[in-house]
């Protein structure tokens, strides 16, 4: 394990002033570094026992485990649990949460983000990243509620929670603008602050840290699992993300063709395009006919969870959308002349 980080955590809050310290582990390369830096700070402050880590699982949409050349590489949820354990958080203090909805038999069943997009009628856009709130933030916030209710009664004051995230300035202008420390919720029951301890880490520093890290990084970052070349996708969360670079989406569409086809189905039925500037339907055609990055590995997506996702998404598409697709109707242009000629 590295003995020091290239940057000291900026704007480090007084960790001892919080009742719950809650690192949010996405399973990506940044959340591993964040948890390393954060847990060092928590141990220094003598409050490591107040830590509970959280992973908002995106279910079938996130990168699954793969077997390549006889070696198994873990998927994103498994990596989040490994990132928690690697820096000393006991297994019973790592919590995986997911969005659910009532099933016909009265129990709760997973409610996929893609189903939500199909029901809503529009893909997330710059300026309205509702997916982050729907699939991640509100799910974790809801998971805190029973604890907050109990602790508020015991403490006789609002519960103080520190949410710790691995966001970095290098990831884009919106991340750069986000303060390293801020209060995100304050009411009579809870006060929630947000801290980004590795905000100023560069991408190179993160990759360098991973060379000697005690936990693997996700296989999708490499050209093929285990290559160690960082020539795969640049991000890892939902396999297909409207905010990702085009090359990432092309590579992801090659690695998860059945999932990409399901996104295209939503796009075609709803009329709203995956991105404001291009359609995933065009990108898939471009990827399959005009050449694309070698996916290196292809996920079969043939298990019962994927079949259940298809059923859920197609059922949502049978209903009227909650929003009309005015935002981006007809704006998804073809990606090249070759594609346009074949459309
Ligand atoms: S990975 Fe992309 S699509 Fe998935 S929740 Fe995050 S921003 Fe939304």
Q: Kindly, what is the distance between the CA atoms of the first and last residues, rounded to a whole number of angstroms? A: 52 Å
Give the uncertain stretches in residue-range form. 1-6, 339-343
Main β-sheet description = 4 strands, mixed
- The proportion of residues in beta strands is 5-15%
Report the count of strand segments. 10
User: What spatial form do the alpha-carbon principal axes imply?
Assistant: globular
Determine the mean pLDDT.
Answer: 91
Please compute the radius of gyration using only Cα atoms.
21 Å
- Helical fraction equals 25-40%
Which ligands are bound? iron/sulfur cluster
* Biggest sheet: strand arrangement: 1-8-10-9
The helix-and-strand class reads alpha/beta
Q: What pattern of helices and strands is seen along the backbone?
A: EHEEEHEEEHHEHEEHHHHHH
Distinct helical segment count: 11
Q: Multimeric state of these chains?
A: single chain
Overview of the structural elements:
The protein is an alpha/beta fold and 343 residues long. Helix content is 37%, strand content 12%. It has a four-stranded mixed β-sheet. The model is unreliable at 1-6 and 339-343 (pLDDT under 50). It binds iron/sulfur cluster (SF4). The site of iron/sulfur cluster (SF4) has 10 residues, from helix 4.
């Amino acid at each position: 394990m590295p003995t020091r980080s290239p940057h000291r955590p900026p704007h480090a809050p007084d960790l001892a002033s919080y009742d719950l310290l809650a690192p949010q582990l996405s399973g990506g390369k940044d959340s591993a570094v964040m948890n390393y830096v954060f847990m060092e700070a928590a141990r220094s402050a003598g409050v490591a026992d107040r830590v509970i880590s959280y992973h908002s699982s995106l279910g079938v949409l996130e990168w699954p485990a793969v077997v390549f050349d006889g070696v198994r590489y873990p998927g994103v949820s498994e990596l989040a649990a490994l990132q928690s354990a690697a820096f000393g958080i006991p297994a019973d203090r790592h919590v995986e949460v997911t969005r659910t909805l009532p099933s016909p038999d009265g129990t709760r069943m997973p409610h996929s983000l893609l189903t939500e997009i199909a029901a809503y009628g529009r893909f997330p856009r710059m300026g309205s990243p509702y997916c982050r709130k729907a699939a991640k933030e509100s799910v974790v916030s809801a998971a805190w509620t029973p604890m907050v209710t109990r602790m508020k009664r015991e403490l006789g004051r609002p519960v103080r929670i520190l949410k710790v995230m691995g966001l970095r300035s290098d990831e884009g202008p919106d991340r750069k603008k986000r303060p390293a420390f801020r209060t995100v919720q304050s009411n009579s029951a809870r006060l929630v602050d947000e801290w980004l301890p590795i905000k100023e880490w560069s991408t190179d520093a993160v990759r360098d840290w991973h060379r000697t890290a005690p936990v693997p990084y996700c296989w999708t970052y490499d050209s093929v699992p285990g290559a160690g070349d960082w020539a795969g996708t640049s991000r890892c969360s939902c396999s297909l993300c409207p905010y990702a670079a085009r090359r990432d989406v092309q590579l992801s569409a090659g690695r998860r063709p059945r999932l990409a086809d399901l996104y295209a189905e939503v796009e075609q039925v709803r009329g709203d395009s995956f991105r404001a500037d291009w359609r995933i339907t065009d990108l898939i055609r471009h990827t399959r006919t005009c050449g694309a990055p070698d996916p290196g590995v292809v996920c079969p997506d043939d298990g019962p969870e994927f079949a259940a996702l298809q059923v859920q998404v197609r059922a949502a598409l049978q209903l009227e959308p909650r929003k009309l697709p005015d935002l981006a109707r007809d704006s998804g242009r073809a990606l090249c002349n070759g594609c346009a000629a074949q459309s």
